[in-house]
Amino acid sequence: FSALGSNVLRMSSGVQVKPKTAVQKSKTSFPLLCSPEPVIKTQPKPSDKLNPKTIDPFGAHSRPPSAFAAIYAKGGIPCRLMHGSVKHRLQWECLPETVPFDPLLVTLAEGLRETKHPYTFVSKEGFKELLMVEGAAEKAIPLLPHLVPVLKAALAHSDDEVFQRGMDALVQLNAVVGPSLNDHLKHLLTNLSRRLMDKKFREKITVALRKLEQYGGKVS
């Protein structure tokens, strides 16, 4: 009763107790998750230009990732490199037989021009294993107009390993599609003949040409 009397005396004295506003309540019970903070810009030191630790790999002047690397990073390639004690292998997220060739086979062919690990292995082995599935010929033949320019770019690459991967992929593709590739060979043989002057590729190119003739028949 004494407490009630004291409250009446406070109210009668004219002192009003203001209730907390909705804003004030929200500040106490629901703190802001993204409260803005002032950004303090620091002036770069002259020595920063020479220090590689200060280089932002995602800066405006950094080299953007290739199309294949970007697709691989986003999970667009349904296989991953598995490191083994003796040799590496690919692990597919689903059976290769169930993977649509369009556009994966073309994407893997584009990856043949990669020069960094693991893209070099994934593109080379993925292209090879995809062509080994049942019914690969029926799936690959409609894609030849898209595959030939990509393989041509690999054969014209200045990097020896890229050229070798492109030549191997061409032979693998020809073994699957057979004479269907004959109409496109004229776009590819020029880049092969240019490397015939290189001693380290002369024998390999000769073997590849014999296989192209074998798989393509008399017309080739």
UniProtKB/TrEMBL annotation:
InterPro entries: ARM-like (IPR011989), ARM-type_fold (IPR016024), Parkin_co-regulated_protein (IPR019399). Pfam families: ParcG (PF10274). Coiled coil: none annotated. This is PACRL protein.
